[in-house]
Write a structure and sequence with these properties.
By secondary structure, the protein is α/β, with parallel strands linked by helices. The protein contains 6 helices and 14 strands. A hairpin with an 8-residue loop joins strand 10 and strand 11. The model has no long low-confidence stretch (mean pLDDT 91). Helix 3 (77-87) packs parallel to helix 4.
Length: 229
């Protein structure tokens, strides 16, 4: 199941068309606290709201399921939303409003995405860039020719990583988190495969325009994100 999560971050980087598209193609829409107001401003219907709700001037209507938490808690509203997506057995989660604004919130959302990628793949759009946290160690990206692709290690080392379809090929290499070697590669083929033996990583795809990014999302099928094909 595809799930869309609205957080309370920066929404200026993308157009209303992107958020509308993601909502139309998601079976479940969750808003974390102030993310509800963001979704409402785009006239997107939210199914569930979660958090301490301190950012809302009024509570959502009755048809919205509300999960209210105390303000003094040990998880952010964003983590509560990701955990709710896990409980709802999501297989692919789009997260919007994750980046921008406060640095501490941005970096926390980045690491939360890497944590919850053990349960489902996560895609975070930001401007003309998609940040993908795959939940498999062998996956293929389709329709990416001409884009700029960066592979970002999250663990201290990503072991035995190989790539196919990129200008600078990796062949069973070990890539360290402190290395910038895998930044700004070029997709020379329409299909790019990345596989590795051990560790955790995310992939950034930089498109020349939001229209090209939307085209990628429109043709996205699960096997290209969730596993080898």
């Amino acid at each position: 199941m595809k799930t869309l999560i609205f957080l309370n971050g920066d929404y200026k980087q993308n157009s209303k068309a992107l958020y509308k598209f993601l909502a139309k193609n998601s079976s479940l829409i969750i808003a974390a606290n102030g993310g509800f107001a963001k979704a409402k401003s785009f006239k997107i219907k939210v199914h569930e709201v979660i958090g301490d709700l301190d950012s809302l001037s009024c509570l959502p209507q009755k048809e919205v399921l509300i999960h209210r938490f105390p303000k003094n808690k040990d998880k952010t509203d964003g983590e509560l939303a990701l955990n709710l997506a896990r409980k709802r057995k999501s297989s692919l989660v789009y997260v919007v409003g994750a980046f921008g604004g406060r640095f501490d919130q941005t970096i926390t959302n980045f690491f939360l995405a890497s944590k919850y990628a053990r349960y489902f793949s996560i895609i975070i759009p930001f401007g003309t860039e998609l940040i993908i946290f795959p939940n498999k160690k062998d996956f293929t990206l389709n329709n990416v020719k001409g884009t700029t692709i960066s592979i970002i290690p999250i663990t201290k080392i990503v072991e035995k990583i190989s790539s196919h379809g990129l200008k600078w090929t990796l062949r069973m290499d070990n890539i360290f988190r402190e290395s910038s070697r895998c930044i700004s590669n070029i997709a020379e083929k329409s299909r790019v495969n990345i596989n590795f033996r051990r560790g955790k990583l995310c992939v950034s795809i930089l498109f020349p325009s939001e229209d090209k990014l939307l085209r990628f999302l429109r043709t996205l099928t699960f096997p290209y994100i969730l596993g080898s094909c």
